[in-house]
Backbone:
């Protein structure tokens, strides 16, 4: 009989299950081959290291020898870190939503030996509770059904797999034409789409901020998209109204428990409708995406003290709180739980004993196992001396565990966010370190592979990894010119675009999220809707729009021609997904960001002798998706400057048409 095979894993999530009596195996072809040989179903359990309820189910069920005996004798057990295998997670999440009507982690899926699911749900308790069966009852039912009603199982797996394979984009795409110029109908639909998304968001704004009730997740991509829409509208009234929506949501998040005003960073979400009590894990992707959105909003509302505080603290949390043994590269996140005297306690590090805050003139809210969460309903930042006092009090407590995996996409998100939040040095260092860490390049400069994360041989890079890395390279190109730390940035951009197209391109503006099908299902995931992060294909469109604008600004005619093709492909992606986005406007934050970036040009501004304050004012005027190219890093001013020698100058180009250089 096989034993638990997780001990050699590089995933903290898998290592946490290495001592379970369940005979877990990591994701790969081996478990499915064993299931075929034994003619048994496969239990695919998906989660991640910082997930609170994953820990709960592990302690309640996966550590139970009686439960393990059922699993080991009647099925093959596979543990999946969703952060290492987002394609696997995406496929089984679609099945879970279809079969149970809900999604989340831990995700519990039962499949045939080909990996095709026939039963899927999330957390199961150790005993029947609130209408849900116990996990043991589920295991017994699955085993009986597999033995006695195989025809039913086979029929369900086939139908569900076909539904997932043909879902998503099919039937909604529009081919923009082989010349790269979309039809007039598609162009009009694409141009009108952002306003419909904004109208949907305005209509669905919740009284307590955000766009829905509990649980309250931070709508990062939507907030950034709303800021970009406000930047491009001709109506000053509409602009202010939309920025006010962003302001109400950010104020609600920053005054409640979602943010950590002591050590910086944001928690995953709030469990209530008033942003009071968070689910305490801190993830790299959430913090990077929120930093990006808040930095864009701060450009237009620089007097918002809470936002300014959050931007500074989140930048510090990313670079310091998530530092790893790899210089400049960042960890995946911090656990929701803290181990106190051998027991996991959710949020212990971040919560306070009753009266502890009041003694310092602060208020606490909520009830987390008898402790409270710091709240700032007065909307005021913490004074530095008070923050130091709170940090000192926290320093005596045990700390949550760190998930030290280096995920390519999330590090690239952080590089983009740090650059856009006013720290291009940190963004540049992270981008070049990530390129060296995640990308394998042949001697001739050809990109051979991109990895998803450290030490994961069965987890190649996804479209999300390549799209975000491309966007990080574009921001590096913008801020540091053609060469940085020995990296030929334009060549890296060009090679990464080629590799991404060869690996993930499907047809007519549509792209796969994964390089290969999931197990033996034959399905290559492609999800055009936002989830925990913006849909990867929208991020790719944004990156291609910006890369195309940069390339067309250069002297080399061949490079300009390549840049025009990149911009055309960005437009094809946007046109191909107008129907998809129109049907699901509430999940279109990532598309709103990409659409607004592309429809804005993106605007390109070449500057000479400009100080940071002048560049910030320029971004406020031109929009946060604009590209600001310093002459000091190789950009060129065209024409005759309309200013005196030594003055700060700017030349603005829109859609390839450039104005005269003028004084800033």
Residues:
């Amino acid at each position: 009989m096989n034993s638990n095979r997780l001990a050699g894993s590089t995933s903290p999530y898998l290592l946490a299950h290495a001592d379970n009596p369940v005979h877990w195996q990591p994701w790969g072809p081996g478990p499915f081959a064993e299931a075929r040989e034994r003619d048994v179903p496969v239990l695919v359990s998906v989660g991640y290291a910082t997930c609170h309820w994953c820990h709960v189910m592990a302690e309640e069920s996966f550590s139970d020898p009686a439960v393990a005996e059922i699993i080991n004798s009647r099925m093959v057990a596979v543990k999946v870190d969703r952060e290492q295998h987002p394609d696997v997670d995406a496929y089984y999440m679609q099945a879970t939503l279809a079969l149970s009507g809900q999604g989340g982690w831990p995700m519990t899926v039962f499949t045939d030996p080909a990996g095709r699911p026939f039963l899927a749900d999330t957390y199961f308790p150790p005993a029947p509770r609130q209408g849900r069966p116990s996990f043991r009852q589920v295991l017994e039912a699955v085993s009986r059904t597999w033995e006695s009603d195989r025809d039913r199982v086979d029929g369900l797996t086939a139908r569900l797999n076909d539904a997932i394979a043909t879902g998503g984009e099919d039937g909604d795409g529009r081919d923009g034409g082989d010349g790269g110029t979309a039809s007039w109908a598609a162009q009009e639909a694409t141009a009108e789409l952002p306003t419909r998304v904004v109208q949907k968001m305005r209509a669905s704004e919740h009284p307590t901020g955000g766009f829905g009730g509990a649980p309250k997740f931070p709508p990062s991509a939507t907030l950034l998209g709303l800021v970009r829409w406000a930047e491009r509208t001709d109506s000053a009234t509409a602009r202010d109204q939309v920025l006010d929506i962003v302001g109400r949501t950010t104020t609600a998040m920053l005054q409640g428990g979602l943010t950590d005003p002591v050590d910086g960073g944001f928690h995953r979400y709030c469990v209530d409708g008033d942003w009071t009590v968070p689910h305490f894990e801190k993830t790299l992707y959430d913090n990077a995406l929120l930093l990006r959105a808040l930095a864009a909003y701060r450009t237009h509302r620089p007097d918002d003290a809470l936002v300014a505080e959050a931007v500074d603290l989140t930048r510090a949390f990313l670079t310091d709180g998530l530092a790893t043994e790899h210089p400049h590269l960042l960890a995946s996140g911090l656990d929701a739980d803290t181990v106190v005297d051998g027991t996991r306690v959710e949020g212990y590090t971040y919560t306070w004993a009753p009266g502890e805050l009041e003694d310092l003139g602060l208020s606490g809210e909520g009830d987390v196992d008898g402790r409270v969460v710091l709240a700032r309903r007065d909307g005021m930042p913490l004074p530095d001396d008070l923050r130091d006092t709170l940090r000192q009090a926290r320093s005596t407590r045990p700390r949550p565990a760190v998930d030290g995996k280096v995920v390519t996409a999330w590090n690239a998100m952080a590089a983009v966010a740090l650059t856009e939040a006013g720290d291009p040095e940190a963004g540049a260092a992270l981008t070049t370190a990530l390129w060296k860490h995640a990308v394998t390049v042949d001697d001739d400069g050809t990109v051979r592979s991109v990895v998803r994360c450290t030490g994961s041989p069965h987890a190649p890079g996804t479209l999300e990894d390549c799209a975000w890395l491309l966007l990080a390279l574009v921001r590096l190109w913008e801020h540091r010119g053609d060469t940085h730390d020995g990296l030929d940035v334009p060549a890296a951009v060009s090679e990464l675009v080629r590799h991404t197209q060869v690996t993930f391109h499907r047809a007519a503006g549509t792209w796969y999220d994964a390089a290969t099908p999931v197990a033996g299902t034959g399905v290559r995931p492609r999800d055009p809707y936002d989830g925990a992060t913006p849909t990867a294909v929208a991020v790719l469109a944004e990156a291609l729009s910006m890369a195309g604008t940069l390339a067309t600004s250069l002297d080399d005619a061949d490079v300009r021609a390549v840049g025009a093709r990149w911009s055309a492909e960005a437009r094809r992606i946007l046109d191909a997904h107008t129907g998809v986005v129109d049907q699901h406007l509430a999940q279109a934050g990532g598309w709103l960001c990409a659409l607004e970036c592309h429809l804005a040009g993106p605007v390109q501004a070449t500057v000479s002798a400009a100080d940071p304050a002048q560049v910030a004012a320029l971004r406020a005027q031109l929009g946060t998706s604009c590209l600001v190219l310093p002459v000091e890093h190789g950009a060129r001013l065209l024409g005759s400057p309309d200013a005196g020698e030594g003055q700060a100058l700017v030349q603005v180009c829109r859609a390839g048409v450039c104005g005269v250089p003028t004084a800033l």
Notes: Residues 604-663 form one domain. The CA atoms of residues 90 and 353 lie 40 Å apart. Residues 184-203 form the longest helix (20 residues). The chain has four domains: 12-166, 208-323+325-404, 406-597, 604-663.
